[in-house]
Amino acid sequence: MLNVNGQLAWMIMELPAPVLFLASYHTSRSGDPEWSHPTVFMLLALFTGHYVNRAVVSPLRTPSRSPSHVIVPICAIIFNTMNASLMGTFFAFISNSPPDLTRPCALPRSAQFWMGIIMFILGLVSNVWHDEILLRLRKNPDSPSALSHSTSTLLNKGSRRTDIAAKPKYSIPYGGLYRFVSYPNYLSEWFEWLGFAIASSALTQCGGLYTPPWMFLAAELAVMLPRAIRGHAWYRERFGERYPSKRKAIFPALL
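== 3-oxo-5-alpha-steroid 4-dehydrogenase C-terminal domain-containing protein ==
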């Protein structure tokens, strides 16, 4: 009851982010077009690219998602609406500022900007890669690279194929940072947005850690860290001794 299709819910709750981000930026802009601010345009492109992958590409490639309670997409839509609007307005403010404040010309600020850009790209690649590992497990939970575990008792050899297909399976993912943590995709996403916040801070002297990029990173940590800890505990309960004993929840060797 009150559950909605998982794929549809995911797309609906993520699509407002890129749309409202660009809309709020455009409506808050004044003066020259964003092409006169290449550093701002790069950050616009990175934010939009992340959410296009998240809202469109990823769900279209995913075989299925579990049904979601209607409150989940509603809360996500509210959050994405607020975050995207703040982000777009923030970058419009930077674009409306004098050009020397929005182009990192001095060496220290330039180094900070490009370090943030590189961090974002590395985090995005890692995020997509580890999501791809999970995607392969969903498509083929019996692959040699995964350890599958049925949610019910093991089936006899004579069981029908339809019965086997009806039994949902969970698998232990391996590869990449899964060697160290249960949620490398979360860790990679945080690294993305840390780089985004660092690059954004190089473009303005206003706000410090109280700007939308830093506030977004803090919100992601607050929401996703408890989820990773609970998920890690679920993995250990589900697989017991078969789950890698040295694998942590989210931070290698720490937590």
